[in-house]
């Protein structure tokens, strides 16, 4: 091998490095306001997240038709973190440091949010997180527009207790942090309601679990103890199809053992024949079937934008709708996109949601939402059978977990703390 | 005579690689820290994080190349060693958080607090000390590789069988680490790191330092591999790669050599993982995914199997391409990566480093219409 | 006939209890149309007890979601073919009344509907319906149905239906606090005889019993439990066989390409995926053009999936793999790249989300065999796996191609010297292996997600099955798949699904490290070459 070839290779390498630098120190246009979209467009999470990217593009488009924001046009910056968690942090950094976006809408899984948290803290960005999650977090730079456990899980259990007289509970979930936490909270809640430990069965399965024979048979067995039994399912996305297929095939009807799910929405049902599942339940803050003028307008807009009138809408889409409108309103209120000003302005902002009410950003960076219980219909939609009387404010720290029952979050001055301990009177958890 | 000349030339090549690596890293660090952000030559912290990550991948590629290129062991489980090293580092970083976690628990990491763990599992003890974590970074993957290799090589599991069981190993670990009951944070893994050896990870200087440390370790790894490849040991290894039975019949204890190199390579991968984690600030079970390990193999194949510089080059280039493509054309990335596998195995079995000189010579020959000198392809293990 | 029967029954009901006139009152209609679930339930009872001959039709329509309520509490039945009729009078209608919308139900309403339908259908002409009705009453334990049950029991001829009726009778007796102890003890015996989980559930739910009855109940539960325990062991083995047959299907194509040809095909999982997507396309075409044939869709899908995956497999072999024979590690890498590209191609073509592949009606549901509840889909997959295995065995052992395949495996050069076109044989072997993977995809589409990632989930398991069973040995693959399936399912109740799988994987790795050639190694000189 000759020296010249080595030189050539190193030259190529240097060229490549220069390209990185070029791409990262690139153009800075100041005549638009940039909005970052951080959703996976490839990999395992693309199934769920691609839709959210499209919704954001639509919302930005609509805002621009209305004349933009602060007299400037909005510009969407889309990146693909490819369902790879370290890549989420890398892309978040790119959005904040290179593209200098004013706000980021993104993430789906908890781990992706955890991965980008330090970046948003460090670069003082704003993240709107649109998915229901396990709670136990309140960060200054993040606004949680999805449901906290008290906005989904607890009302669902209340509904089953009151309306279906359920006394025996199967808590079935995929083995990751959201089901683990939710089930811990539910377990504590049920015990507080007088449910005996032997009437609670907890089961965890891996991601993408496909052979449900044993577990469904176990559920059947557990349900034959003479008390009305229900399954609370925090089973994640992909594993649901074989789960429901097995339920249907083994003849577990909703009238015998109802299953209430927190992660099954219209998108998931689209891959299923729902006829055997009629009557099984889901708890969300939004259903596509909600009959309000706002929702109708939103769905029409969505169908026109995506050029396919068969596409469904779902809860995280509504969360982005709410989050985006809140951000727009807060920027208008603050008169600037400066993160500190907008973060302060966001608290208290109130915008219409799609279920016929208003959602408000709370001081703990969670929002108020109605909780709906829907039953699966044979057309793949949900029929709302129950709705909370008013709006439920999201609770960042659960009252049913030992570590967090004394914590509150309030980002208004002078407290400005995400984990204030009311017992010790200090910010920073249980410290010392 | 020719051999000696070649050897001398290779010495200088190795020196060039090491010097180039360290020089570039130093330059990047200086440009990043010393220049103001609006300077044309300023390197953003985003780029620093990227380059630091590439260097860790290059070290992993080097580790894969050592076993695959020199001993012919195609490990589809090196991602597991990488991840184990990463977890060891992650556990140290978790313990460093102390009372700064959201619950302020001085001992337990946050994920244990909210899942109602009462005390630290035994295997977390000691990780508050860096020296212990440092040992574990090498010991955990090393020990696994030693046991696994000892069992496999002793029974003469070779070729594709070995590849398949290494893949099964990393898959089993993936499932295991996903379990929240394991006490490694389940799917969320370990995050929210604050500082390393007292340096805040949020500081630019720390990150630049990590990049430089990665470059230094990569250079050390390169020197170590180079030394092995050019020693008598290296010749035995190549003999094992090319004719295992014959080497055994000559009297070499093949399995001992294999176990040694496999373990060494696993340790290198573990160190790469340990450097990677503080730079990307998360470690999660998906690092165990079999796909990651196979991807590492393709970096080596692209750069040039059995050429140490090729492995480094492949690790950096393919990941650089990934960064560019996932930005510009996300849908195309998998096509590109898949295509790379096919093109490299079918048309460039020697990778870039092996193929480039021949191609260049051919091009030169066409351009200059010079005396047709035979293009000499590089030997494996330059 | 049915109408007449229900009419007779209605008359009987009136004589028995109800003072109500035999017609559906405006009040009942208003309740049904109210939109309030509790009122709807009252309305259902009013209708059921009205004795009106239209009652069954109305309740059935409500249960099927075909009952529309319009302005002024009009009730309309809309059949699935679009014909409309007035629910109360049965008169045909030309247009929907104003604001007519299907009445919405919730689970509570559905339960009440099932109970009422059960009561009304007890004297249906069809024994299956009578039995279903009796089972519905068994579940609802509706006291008001006792008279109807006893009336039905008195003239029932079919022994199966009699058993169900007796169980329903016993269930009502047991849950009614006013019945005497002797009756209850007799009822407990009937329920214990019935056995099974729902019987146990019923007995376990009883409370406030006299000591005598309580003792009988405790005994009965003990008997049922012993029975269930024995069956649950059988059940675990059955589930294991079922899982094993899925593994066998996924792995058997690999056993051909890897075992017979020594080619590591990492894109094998994608061949399975192609088969599943072929099923999806076939079903879509049938749904849109000839919906009546939907139940036969899988029969069309199997050969098509074989052809599609087989053709893709042969194309891959001809254009790429044949250049890499003798370099298994390179083949492995190349086919991995191929698998990425195939996944992305499918993702681009069909989208990233899951596609709906329906179960034909003959594959839905379950039936009881002793204490086992067997689902048809799983049962057919077991049978299908056996059929595929036998067919492959026949091809290998009884055809000229099979003979040539074995010859090439054992000694390629000599086979070539004997005039076998080894290239051609390679191509076909690979085609068959891939085609069988495609067939597996048809079966897997019935129980798993049809998504671009489908194949990924099976590839490692398939390799483990083939290596564990012994490369180059189809019987080994069969034994390997079944034993892995059964061990997995036996471990699952104790270790949980995840840990069970990890244990199996670790044991497998250790086993292969001890015996690299698997359970049934092929012996001979050619093995090492």
Give an overview of the whole structure.
The complex is a heterotrimer of chains A (432), B (382) and C (529). With 432 residues, chain A is α/β, with parallel strands linked by helices. Helix content of chain A is 38%, strand content 19%. In chain A, helix 11 packs across helix 12 (339-346). The longest helix of chain A has 22 residues, at 3-24. Chain B has one domain. Helices cover 71% and strands 1% of the residues of chain B. In chain B, a hairpin with a 2-residue loop joins strand 1 (195-196) and strand 2 (199-200). The radius of gyration of chain B is 22 Å and the shape is globular. Chain C is mainly alpha-helical and 529 residues long. Chain C contains 20 helices and 7 strands. Classes of the chains: A alpha/beta (432), B mainly alpha (382), C mainly alpha (529). At the A-B interface, helix 1, helix 3, helix 4, helix 6 and strand 18 of A face helix 1, helix 2, helix 4, helix 12 and helix 14 of B.
- H and E string of chain B: HHHHHHEEHHHHHHHH
Largest β-sheet summary of chain B = 2 strands, antiparallel
Average pLDDT score of chain C: 83
Strand order of the largest sheet of chain C: 4-3-2-1-5
Rounded mean pLDDT score of chain B: 84
Residue share in helices of chain C?
55-70%
The coarse silhouette of chain B is: globular
Helix share of residues of chain B? over 70%
Order of helices and strands of chain C: HHHHEEEEEHHHHHHHHHHEEHHHHHH
Give the number of DSSP strands of chain C.
Answer: 7
Would you tell me the structural class of the helices and strands of chain B?
A: mainly alpha
* Oligomeric category: heterotrimer
Keywords:
heterotrimer; B: mainly alpha; 14 helices; 2 strands; 71% helix; C: mainly alpha; 5-stranded antiparallel β-sheet; two-stranded antiparallel ribbon; 20 helices; elongated
Task: Give a brief rundown of this model.
With 432 residues, chain A is an alpha/beta fold. Chain A has helices at residues 3-24, 46-65, 85-98, 110-123, 153-163, 177-192, 213-222, 240-249, 266-269, 293-306, 315-334, 339-346; strands at 32-38, 73-79, 103-106, 127-129, 142-144, 168-174, 200-205, 229-234, 259-261, 281-284, 350-352, 358-360, 368-369, 372-376, 382-387, 392-393, 407-410, 417-421, 426-427. In chain C, helix 7 (146-155) packs antiparallel against helix 8, helix 9 runs parallel beside helix 11 and helix 11 packs antiparallel against helix 18 (422-444).
């Amino acid at each position: 091998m000759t020296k010249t070839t080595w030189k050539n290779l190193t030259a190529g390498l240097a060229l490549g490095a220069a390209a990185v630098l070029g791409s990262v120190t690139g153009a800075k246009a100041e005549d638009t306001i940039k909005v970052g979209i951080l959703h996976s467009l490839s990999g395992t999470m693309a199934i769920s997240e691609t839709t959210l990217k499209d919704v954001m593009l639509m919302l930005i488009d609509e805002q621009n038709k209305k004349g933009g924001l602060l007299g400037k046009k909005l510009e969407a910056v889309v990146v693909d973190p490819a369902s790879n968690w370290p890549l989420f942090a890398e892309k978040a950094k790119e959005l904040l440091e290179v593209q200098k976006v004013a706000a980021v809408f993104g993430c789906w899984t908890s781990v992706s949010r955890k991965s980008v948290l330090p970046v948003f803290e460090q670069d003082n960005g704003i993240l709107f997180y649109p998915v229901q999650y396990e709670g136990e977090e309140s960060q200054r730079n993040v606004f949680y527009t999805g449901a906290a456990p008290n906005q989904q899980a607890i009302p669902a259990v209340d509904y089953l207790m009151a309306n279906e007289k359920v006394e025996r509970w199967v808590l079935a979930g995929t083995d990751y942090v959201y089901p683990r936490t939710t089930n811990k909270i539910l377990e504590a809640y049920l015990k507080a309601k007088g449910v005996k430990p032997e009437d609670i069965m907890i089961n965890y399965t891996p991601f993408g679990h496909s052979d449900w024979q044993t577990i469904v048979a176990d559920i059947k067995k557990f349900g034959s103890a003479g008390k009305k039994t229900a399954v609370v399912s925090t089973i994640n996305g992909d594993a649901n199809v074989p789960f429901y297929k097995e339920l249907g095939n083994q003849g577990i009807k909703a009238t015998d053992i109802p299953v209430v799910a927190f992660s099954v929405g219209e998108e998931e049902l689209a891959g299923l024949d729902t006829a055997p599942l009629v009557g099984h339940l889901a708890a969300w803050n939004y259903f596509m079937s909600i009959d309000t003028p706002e929702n109708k307008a939103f769905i029409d807009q969505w169908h026109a934008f995506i050029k396919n009138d068969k596409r469904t809408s779902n809860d995280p889409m509504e969360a982005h709708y709410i989050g985006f409108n809140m951000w727009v309103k807060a920027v208008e209120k603050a008169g600037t996109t400066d993160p500190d000003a907008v973060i302060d302005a966001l608290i208290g902002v109130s915008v219409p949601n799609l279920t016929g009410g208003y959602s408000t950003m709370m001081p703990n960076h969670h929002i108020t939402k109605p909780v709906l219980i829907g039953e699966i219909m044979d057309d793949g939609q949900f029929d709302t059978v129950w709705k909370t009387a008013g709006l439920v404010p999201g609770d960042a720290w659960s009252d049913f977990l030992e570590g967090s029952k004394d914590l509150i979050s309030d980002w208004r001055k002078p407290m400005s703390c995400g984990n204030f301990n009311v017992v010790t009177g200090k910010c920073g958890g249980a410290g010392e | 005579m020719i051999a000696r000349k070649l050897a001398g030339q290779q010495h200088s090549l190795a020196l060039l690689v090491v010097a180039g690596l360290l020089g570039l890293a130093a330059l990047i660090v200086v440009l990043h820290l010393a220049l103001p952000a609006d300077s044309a030559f300023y390197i953003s912290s985003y780029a620093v994080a990227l380059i630091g990550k590439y260097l860790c991948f290059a070290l992993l590629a080097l580790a894969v190349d050592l076993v695959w290129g020199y001993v012919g062991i195609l490990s589809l489980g090196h991602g597991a060693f990488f991840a184990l090293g990463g977890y060891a580092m992650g556990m140290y970083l978790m313990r460093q958080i102390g009372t700064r976690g959201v619950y302020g628990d001085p001992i337990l990491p946050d994920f244990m607090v909210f899942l109602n763990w009462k005390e630290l599992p035994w295997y977390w003890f000691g990780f508050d000390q860096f020296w212990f974590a440092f040992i574990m970074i090498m010991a955990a993957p090393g020990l696994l590789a030693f046991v696994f290799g000892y069992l496999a090589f002793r029974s003469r599991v070779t070729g594709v069988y070995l590849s398949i069981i290494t893949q099964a190993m990393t898959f089993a670990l993936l499932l295991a680490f996903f379990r929240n009951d394991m006490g490694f944070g389940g799917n969320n893994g370990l995050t929210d790191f604050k500082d390393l050896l007292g340096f805040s990870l949020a500081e630019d200087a720390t990150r630049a330092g990590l990049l430089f440390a990665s470059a230094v370790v990569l250079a050390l790894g390169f020197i170590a591999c180079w030394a092995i490849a050019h020693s008598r040991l290296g010749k035995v290894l190549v003999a094992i790669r090319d004719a295992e039975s014959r080497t055994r019949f000559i009297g070499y204890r093949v399995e001992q050599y294999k176990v040694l190199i496999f373990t060494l390579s696993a340790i290198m991968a573990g160190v790469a993982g340990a450097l990677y984690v503080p730079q990307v600030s998360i470690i999660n079970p998906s690092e165990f995914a079999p796909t990651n390990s196979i991807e590492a193999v393709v970096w080596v194949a692209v750069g040039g199997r059995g050429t140490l510089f090729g492995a480094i080059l492949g690790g950096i280039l393919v990941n650089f391409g990934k960064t560019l493509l996932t930005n510009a054309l996300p849908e195309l990335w998998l096509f590109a990566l898949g295509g790379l596998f096919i093109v490299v195995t079918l048309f460039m079995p020697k990778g870039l480093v092996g193929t480039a000189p021949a191609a260049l010579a051919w091009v030169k020959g066409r351009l200059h219409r010079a005396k047709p000198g035979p293009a000499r392809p590089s030997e494996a293990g330059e | 006939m049915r109408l007449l029967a229900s009419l007779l029954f209605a008359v009987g009901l009136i004589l028995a209890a109800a003072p109500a006139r035999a017609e559906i009152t405006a009040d009942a209609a208003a309740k049904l149309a109210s939109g309030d679930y509790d009122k709807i339930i009252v309305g259902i009872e009013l209708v059921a007890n009205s004795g009106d001959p239209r009652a069954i039709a109305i309740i059935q329509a409500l249960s099927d979601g075909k009952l529309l309520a319009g302005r002024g509490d009009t009730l309309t039945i809309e059949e699935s073919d679009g014909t409309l009729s007035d629910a109360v009078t049965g008169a045909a209608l030309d247009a929907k009344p104003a604001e007519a919308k299907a009445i919405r139900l919730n689970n509570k309403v559905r339960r009440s509907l099932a109970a009422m339908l059960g009561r009304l259908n007890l004297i249906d002409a069809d024994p299956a319906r009578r039995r279903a009705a009796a089972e519905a009453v068994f579940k609802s334990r509706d006291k008001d149905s006792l008279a109807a049950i006893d009336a039905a029991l008195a003239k029932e001829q079919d022994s199966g239906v009699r058993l169900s009726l007796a169980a329903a009778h016993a269930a009502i007796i047991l849950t009614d606090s006013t019945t005497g102890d002797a009756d209850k003890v007799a009822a407990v015996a009937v329920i214990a005889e019935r056995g099974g989980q729902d019987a146990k559930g019923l007995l376990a739910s009883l409370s406030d019993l006299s000591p005598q009855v309580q003792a009988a109940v405790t005994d009965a539960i003990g008997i049922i439990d012993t029975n269930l325990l024995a069956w649950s062991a059988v059940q675990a083995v059955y589930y294991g066989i079922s899982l094993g047959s899925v593994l066998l299907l996924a792995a058997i194509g690999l056993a051909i390409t890897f075992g017979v040809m020594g080619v590591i095909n990492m894109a094998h999982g994608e061949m399975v995926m192609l088969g599943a997507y072929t099923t999806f396309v076939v079903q879509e075409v049938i749904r849109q053009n000839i919906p009546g044939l939907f139940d036969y869709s899988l029969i069309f899908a199997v050969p098509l999936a074989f052809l599609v995956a087989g053709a893709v497999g042969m194309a891959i072999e001809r254009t790429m793999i044949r250049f890499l024979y003798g370099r298994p590690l390179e083949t492995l890498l190349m086919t991995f790249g191929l698998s990425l590209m195939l996944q992305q191609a499918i993702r681009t073509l069909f989208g990233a989300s899951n596609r709906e592949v329906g179960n034909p009606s003959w594959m839905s549901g379950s039936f009881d065999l002793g204490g086992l509840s067997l689902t048809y889909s799983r049962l057919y997959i077991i049978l299908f796996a056996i059929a595929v295995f036998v067919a492959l065995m026949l091809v290998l052992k009884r055809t000229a191609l099979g003979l040539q395949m074995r010859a090439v495996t054992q000694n390629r050069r000599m086979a070539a010297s004997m005039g076998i076109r080894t290239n051609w044989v390679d191509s076909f072997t690979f085609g068959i292996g891939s085609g069988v993977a495609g067939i597996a995809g048809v079966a897997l589409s019935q129980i798993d997600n049809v998504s671009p990632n489908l194949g990924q989930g099976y590839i490692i398991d398939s390799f483990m099955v083939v290596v564990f069973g012994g490369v180059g040995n189809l019987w080994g693959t069969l034994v390997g798949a079944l034993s892995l399936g059964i061990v997995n399912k036996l471990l699952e109740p104790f270790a949980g699904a995840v840990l069970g799988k990890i244990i199996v994987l670790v044991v497998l790795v250790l086993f292969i490290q001890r015996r690299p050639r698997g359970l049934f190694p092929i012996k001979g000189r050619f093995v090492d070459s």
